[in-house]
């Protein structure tokens, strides 16, 4: 580690070769949390899909078995056990991913502060205090949100997509027609959404730092501003930056408002239902699947 004006003895060193390697070097310190989250999320989605199979089996038993009450009671107890186990596993997965996010934010902020301590006074004289403040507060906070709910939602969505497809294939391969079409259209829609929102979001974060820097500089030099009677000019300068931030925020909101996957999911559910009814009418599947 490079020595500066201040150093921390025994500080953990992270890989800064690339953004991805830097993130991995932070997260690999907490392997047990990552493993717990991955296993918990997979098991949660497996149990969720298993409930549908148990419910379908219960319908078949109630229709065909004489002891309908006993079959219904057995299926109910099985579903209750699955729901309770799923709840505990989901709680564990949520707890571990939140801990991972908090530790990541804490370590990143600690690394930033240590990096600032290692810089020379001439470096700090060249920096805008507002940019550093925005980086140390708002931007570092985004790392926490990147893990939870960011990584949490992405991995949960993948598990919630792949595992039900496996269970649907177990029931009948024909039923995979509509879900697979949904997956293809969903991926294309998601890629298009990422392509449109990525540049706007980066501009939004950059503009926030600039707006914060101008405000901080004005407040720190308020005596000079008032002595030179430049309050109006400084207000116009900040208002211009705020208007630009507002325009980017609105543009970002419009792109998010055109997020199509929820609509595609609704169409896929309707299509799958119609397909299932068609197979049932023609004797392809039973009432419970």
UniProtKB/TrEMBL annotation:
<dbReference type="InterPro" id="IPR036640">
    <property type="entry name" value="ABC1_TM_sf"/>
</dbReference>
<feature type="transmembrane region" description="Helical">
    <location>
        <begin position="176"/>
        <end position="193"/>
    </location>
</feature>
<dbReference type="InterPro" id="IPR011527">
    <property type="entry name" value="ABC1_TM_dom"/>
</dbReference>
<feature type="transmembrane region" description="Helical">
    <location>
        <begin position="76"/>
        <end position="101"/>
    </location>
</feature>
<dbReference type="GO" id="GO:0015421">
    <property type="term" value="F:ABC-type oligopeptide transporter activity"/>
</dbReference>
<feature type="transmembrane region" description="Helical">
    <location>
        <begin position="150"/>
        <end position="170"/>
    </location>
</feature>
<keyword id="KW-0812">Transmembrane</keyword>
<protein>
    <recommendedName>
        <fullName>ABC transmembrane type-1 domain-containing protein</fullName>
    </recommendedName>
</protein>
<dbReference type="InterPro" id="IPR039421">
    <property type="entry name" value="Type_1_exporter"/>
</dbReference>
<dbReference type="Pfam" id="PF00664">
    <property type="entry name" value="ABC_membrane"/>
</dbReference>
<keyword id="KW-1133">Transmembrane helix</keyword>
<dbReference type="GO" id="GO:0005524">
    <property type="term" value="F:ATP binding"/>
</dbReference>
<keyword id="KW-0472">Membrane</keyword>
<feature type="transmembrane region" description="Helical">
    <location>
        <begin position="32"/>
        <end position="56"/>
    </location>
</feature>
<feature type="domain" description="ABC transmembrane type-1">
    <location>
        <begin position="38"/>
        <end position="289"/>
    </location>
</feature>
<dbReference type="GO" id="GO:0005886">
    <property type="term" value="C:plasma membrane"/>
</dbReference>
<feature type="transmembrane region" description="Helical">
    <location>
        <begin position="258"/>
        <end position="281"/>
    </location>
</feature>
